[in-house]
Each structure stands twice: as structure tokens, then as C-alpha cells.
Specification:
GO terms for molecular function: DNA binding; endonuclease activity. It holds the Pfam family HTH_3. InterPro entries: Cro/C1-type_HTH, Lambda_DNA-bd_dom_sf, Nuclease_put_TT1808, Restrct_endonuc-II-like, Uma2. This is Endonuclease, Uma2 family (Restriction endonuclease fold). Keywords: Endonuclease, Hydrolase, Nuclease. It is globular, with a radius of gyration of 19 Å. About 30% of the residues are buried. The chain has 8 helices and 12 strands. The strands form 4 sheets. The protein has a 6-stranded mixed beta sheet with strand order 3-5-7-8-9-10, sandwiched between helices. A two-stranded antiparallel ribbon has the order 1-2. It is α+β, with helices and mostly antiparallel strands. It is about 35% helix and about 20% strand. The longest helix has 21 residues. It folds into 2 domains: about 70 residues, 434 Repressor (Amino-terminal Domain); about 150 residues, Alpha-Beta Complex (tt1808, chain A).
Length: about 250
């Protein structure tokens, strides 16, 4: 959501900067500078936190959810995430909740296609790797302030698979971009996945008609980035002989 849209919603709902700071965890001075125009290029994570707080305020105002227990806390934790209402899907990043939009049919078909190919490969080849499709929580940093929900993951360490979350970095992650998640997928989650030790991260972008693959498959600190069109075969780098044909998604 753009700053002007956030400002319009903020004014319509008469949300003060003090209240927005309390709800979002973003400092009062930072919020003031963003909405006054003093900060020309606000950080993506700050904007996401502000947007999430405004959405939460609107939901709370309408009686849809009672978020007061979370608003009083500077940071939310994995325990808070586990205790969210069943009808609310949200990711927890650095102690801040980010609501997740309902996926489109295209989104689900693409994630399902990739998951199907991954599970078929693993069943044929055997081994310990386990493909999983959303919703599945990933406690990425092994701390109590971050749980993300990728569209598809492959986890090759069985000890990381717990009852309700993957504890630690998966080996392979897929995110299918939606308009509301673009900044989060390309910037926030990219940094999170890289720092946590995810070996390979795919972003499928319908608008750009491309698959961006970030891989970190060796012991060096260098990350390799490759971009594929939907008509091109895309190799799964964590395996020697798995190549996905995604041309089918052009017909969805």
C-alpha cells in the first residue's frame, strides 16, 4: 500500500501518530517524518508494520478481532502467533504481525504444481527431504519473534519438523508473489531467508512472468541470482537432476 493510501486511511479513521506508534512498534518520530514527507524513502519494513497496524485498527474497530492484547506489547512472540484465531492467517516478522491476503486461484494452482512435482520426485528418489505446502509455519531464526508461511518448502533435516512449525531454515523455499506481498517477498523475506541459511529461494512473479532464483549452495558468502521466463525449464539447485517445467502456468 502506498504512503498516500496509508495517510488517507489514517485520517479517515482518525488514528493519531501516538496510537499508530503504539500499535505498530514504529517510533513516533519515524511515523511523523514518514507522513509529513520528511522521510523520502521510508524503509519497507516500517511501511509494512504501519500498514499492518492500520489494518488491525480497522478490524478491531469493526469488532472483527480483539487485538488489544497484542497492541499493548512491544513485540509479539511465537506463542502469540500460535494463539491467533483460527480464521486469521498472519506471519510474524521481528515481533510484528503481517496479515496474509487470501491466495488467488492462480496462486494456489502454481504452488500446487510445484509441490506436486517436488513430492513426486522425493517419492521416486527416496531420502529424508520433505516437501510441504502452505499453510505451514517456519520459525526461521530459531528465536521467538519470527514465523513465516512460505507457499512451498523442502526440508531435508527431519529434526526441524515439529508439531506446528518448521524449526529453523528449510533447504528450499518458494513464494508466489501477490500484489500485497511483493515488497515483503523481494526484500524482507529475501534477507530473512538468506540470513537464516536457506539454500535456495524461488520467487514466482505473475506480473513479471518470471521466476527469480536466489541460491546459496556452497560454503561461500556469495549468493547467486538467476532469472527464468515461464517458458524456460528451471533447475532445482538442491538436487542434481530435478528440473521443473513451469510452462503450464502460462495457461492458467
Amino acid at each position: 500500500m502506498e504512503i498516500l493510501e496509508l495517510k488517507k486511511l489514517k485520517e479517515e479513521k482518525q488514528i493519531t501518530n501516538e496510537k499508530l506508534s503504539e500499535l505498530s512498534g514504529v517510533s513516533y518520530s519515524t511515523i511523523t517524518k514518514i507522513f509529513s514527507g520528511a522521510t523520502k524513502r521510508p524503509r519497507a519494513d516500517k511501511l509494512l508494520a504501519i500498514e499492518n497496524a492500520i489494518r488491525d485498527f480497522i478490524n478491531d474497530e469493526s469488532g472483527a478481532l480483539d487485538l488489544s492484547v497484542f497492541a499493548k506489547k512491544k513485540y509479539n512472540t511465537v506463542e502469540d502467533w500460535l494463539n491467533l484465531p483460527d480464521d486469521r492467517r498472519a506471519e510474524l516478522i521481528d515481533g510484528v504481525f503481517y496479515d496474509m491476503a487470501e491466495p488467488t486461484i492462480w496462486h494456489q494452482r502454481v504452488a500446487g504444481l510445484v509441490y506436486f512435482e517436488a513430492i513426486k520426485y522425493v517419492r521416486e528418489k527416496g531420502g529424508n527431504c520433505l516437501p510441504l505446502i502452505s499453510p505451514v509455519g517456519v520459525q526461521l531464526d530459531k528465536d521467538d519473534k519470527t514465523v513465516v508461511e512460505p507457499d512451498v518448502v523442502i526440508v531435508c533435516d527431519p529434526d526441524k519438523v515439529k508439531d506446528r512449525v518448521i524449526y529453523g531454515a528449510p533447504d528450499w523455499v518458494l513464494e508466489v508473489v501477490s500484489p500485497s506481498s511483493k515488497t515483503k517477498d523481494y526484500i524482507v523475506k529475501l534477507g530473512k531467508y538468506q540470513n537464516a541459511g536457506v539454500r535456495e529461494y524461488w520467487i514466482i512473479d505473475r506480473k513479471q512472468e518470471r521466476v527469480t532464483v536466489y541460491s546459496h549452495l556452497d560454503d561461500s558468502e556469495n549468493m547467486e541470482v538467476k532469472i527464468y521466463g515461464f517458458s524456460e525449464p528451471v533447475p532445482v539447485g538442491i538436487y542434481d537432476d530435478l528440473i521443473l517445467d513451469l510452462s503450464e502456468i502460462q495457461r492458467y
